[in-house]
Model the fold of this input.
Amino acid sequence: MSPVQRCFRILNLVGLFALAYGLPGWAEDLAIGVVEPQKVLDGTTAGKQVKDALADYVNTRQRLIESEEQDIKAMEEDLVKQGTALSPEARQEKEAVIRQKLVTYQRHVQELEGEVQTKKRELLSDFTKKVEQVVQEIAEQEKITLVMEKGDAGLGALIMYSEPSINLTDRVIKAFEGKGARRAPDPPPHSQPQRYTPPTPPANTPAPRGAWRPWVH
Done:
């Protein structure tokens, strides 16, 4: 869950609690609005810059991982080609080297996945604060008491339907763009990736299975 979604999720819970336990008479005319955070991210210049910066960060590191993956694949193919030409001792030695490289590769996968999540939070931090400010200003101007998040539809959604007239998303995007919000941090300059050398992990740390294929929203 992104920081943008988290700030609205709290408001959702408050609203659902109020609906579950009833509202006092004065709240019958409670003004409610909904915002779709993902659409705000997709529909603003700053949001697109955040996504581009994250995609560039992910792609650079994925190239490093794929390079290690190709090295391991080449070693395995070479071992098959040599076949019976190798002595049992030589084969065991090559297999041990491949296993060690695979463990290292899987450790890199795990560490880089954590780095991507950290980078995502970092890039979204400033953007989230600006979105919160715009939502607050719109709510105050239009006398809206409660703003809730509307995410993906489905059985797991907190809001499965809302009247289009209370959806503030387009107004938030327009106001955000009108403010000329400071652009998101630029991605680092393109350069030739260097081989990744992570810190030594704690002993007995389990390695994940499979290749690294992070999904970027």
